[in-house]
Amino acid sequence: AISRFFEMGLSIPEVAVISGHKDARMLFRYTHLRAEDLVNKIS
Q: Considering the chain, what is the average pLDDT of its residues?
């Protein structure tokens, strides 16, 4: 779910507030971006 917030375009502080993560390291630990979405974004 965390990854989907980033895919929607939310910023790191916004996602941290929604998810309750106080530390960016923990936030990124649960972020799993899909390669296909990244390819589409840069194409």
A: 89
Nearby residues of 1 by Cβ (< 8 Å), 6 or more positions away: 19
pTM of the model as a whole: 0.69
DSSP string, 1-43: -HHHHHHTT--HHHHHHHHT--SHHHHHHT----HHHHHHHH-
The pair of structure tokens assigned to 19 is 């998810």
> Using CA of residue 2, residue 7, residue 37, residue 41, what is the dihedral sign?
negative
Cα 3 from Cα 32, distance rounded (Å): 5
